[in-house]
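Customer escalation, tier 2.

The customer says the design service returned an amino acid string that "doesn't look like it belongs to this structure." They asked us to rerun it and document both sides in this ticket. The original structure tokens are below, unchanged.
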């Protein structure tokens, strides 16, 4: 509620869920290299389409092999080197045949957000684009695409808002679950 441009509500429908996997081949090489210090235990991803079938967003969560110190180091590196805003470190979308996301490839990435959680062994991200498969020549990080007065296509379409809001929601969910603790299966 209230996460779109101007506080508009957004509604999403799950289009595709990636098989539970590791991180091999899931990221562009430079992003894989940037995440390598924390390792990859497991990757979960899903792609959603908005109810108007105009926009797509892939959401991902990397469960790392790192301890708290390594996660803090990675978060610090992402912040000081602005790794979360570099176009050569955009996450890849998850496209699945036979779904509205079938043509959601690297050239369709419009906006993205990456959050390194320093108190949990998790990196969450979202990457958004247009559902019609159009190529985006000037992708923009969500932090820039959500600034007041931004006039790029990703900004005006709300794709920065989508990537930012979904990433924040996933981060919030991880934190809430961690605060509740976990129980061992019987």
């Amino acid at each position: 509620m209230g996460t779109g441009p101007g506080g508009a509500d957004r509604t999403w429908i799950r289009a595709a869920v990636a098989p539970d996997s590791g991180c091999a081949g899931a990221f562009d090489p430079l992003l894989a290299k940037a995440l390598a210090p924390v390792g990859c235990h497991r990757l979960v991803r899903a792609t959603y389409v908005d109810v108007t079938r105009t926009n797509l967003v892939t959401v991902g969560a990397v469960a790392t092999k790192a301890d708290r110190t390594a996660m803090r180091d990675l978060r610090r590196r992402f912040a000081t080197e602005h790794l979360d805003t570099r176009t050569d470190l955009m996450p890849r979308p998850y496209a699945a045949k036979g779904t509205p996301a079938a043509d959601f490839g690297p050239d369709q990435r419009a906006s993205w957000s990456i959050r390194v959680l320093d108190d949990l062994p998790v990196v969450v991200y979202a990457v958004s684009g247009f559902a019609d498969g159009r190529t985006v020549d000037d992708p923009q990080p969500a932090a820039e695409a959500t600034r007041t007065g931004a006039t790029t296509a990703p900004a005006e379409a709300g794709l920065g808002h989508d990537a930012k809001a979904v990433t924040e929601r996933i981060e919030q969910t991880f934190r809430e679950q961690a605060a509740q603790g976990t129980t061992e299966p019987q």
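Tier 2 assessment: The sequence is consistent with the input. The chain has one domain: 5-182. The beta strands are 12-17, 42-50, 55-63, 111-117, 122-130, 140-141. Sent an explanation to the customer and offered a walkthrough call.
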